[in-house]
Amino acid sequence: MNNPLVSVIVPTFNSYNNLKIFLNSFLFSKYRNFEIIINDDKKTNDKTADLIEEYLFKGLKIIYIKENILMAQARKKGAEYANGEILIFLDSDMKITENLLGECVKLINSEYDALVIPEESYGENFWAKCKWLEKKCYIGVEKIESLRCIKKDIYFKIGGHNEKMVFSEDKDLDIRVRKNNYKIGRTINYIYHNEGKLKLTKNLMKKFNYSKTANLFAIEHPKEFKWQINIINRYLLYIKNIKYLFIHPILYIGIFYIKTCEVFFGSLGFLMNKYKIK
User: Could you tell me which of 7, 135, 142, 277 has the fewest CB atoms within 10 Å of its CB?
Assistant: First the structure.
């Protein structure tokens, strides 16, 4: 694969504003042999289709489908439309750097079957900045980071994303790739995740709802699930990065607070679903 086609797959739902930033970042990619597969939700009622027309005119190769039902299902369905030999799974509130695609191709061409692409958040308010600092503490932590780039043949060989999974669907794929002993590398280039004006209540309700499907992940990966739900493991990572207490003291305290709330609401959703409490 000297100059392989890269297929970038992104599920969307009324994502016009984020998608514009997402697509714009690809205009500046130094590696040009790529396509973007946008799998839009059937209920989308914004101007996503018009935006795609605009970026087709600007020279991007985009395949637009409307078969998004759930996140994992949307990713797998998008992969079925992919023409490329390399798949990259992103979200609409992300953007890439100009060298990312080229680095992915170089690493896959060299020796790797899949790649972790480190992520850095950015946003406009206090809670978004807490997320930025939290993800700083997760850089290089295998139990948390998940692969986003993979050879297409390997993706389908292991069954792709589990379409029924909502909770940690990305980590599920990552775990299965690792358990099959494929070689996983890591890019130097980052993807940037726009948290916007992160609302704590909305974020906690998302954790609450996602955790209702955590039983599936718990059955498939009991060891990894136990690590994830043990909040002490997160606290230890923050303490390991205690340097941030002196650099960003208020944000550092904030990440303890937000993660404690997330685990509480996530556990509540999981237990209510387990014991069929409405």
Answer: 277
Of 225, 227, 230, 205, the residue nearest 214 (C-alpha): 225
Q: What is the three-class DSSP state of 274? A: helix
Comparing CA positions, the residue from 173, 180, 194, 161 lying closest to residue 71 is 161
- DSSP lists the bridge partners of residue 194 as 122
Longest dimension (CA), the chain: 55
Rounded Cα gap, residues 273 and 190, in angstroms: 36
| Residues 101/6, Cβ–Cβ less than 8 Å | yes
**Angle at alpha carbon of residue 18, lines to 13 and 21, rounded to 5°:** 140
Question: Taking the complete model, does pTM exceed 0.85, yes or no?
Answer: yes
Three-state DSSP state, 193: strand
Tokens of 163: 């379409």
**How sure is the predictor about 228, in pLDDT bands with cuts at 50, 70 and 90?**
very high
Class assignment of domain 6-197? alpha beta
CA–CA distance, 168 with 210 (Å, rounded to integer)? 9
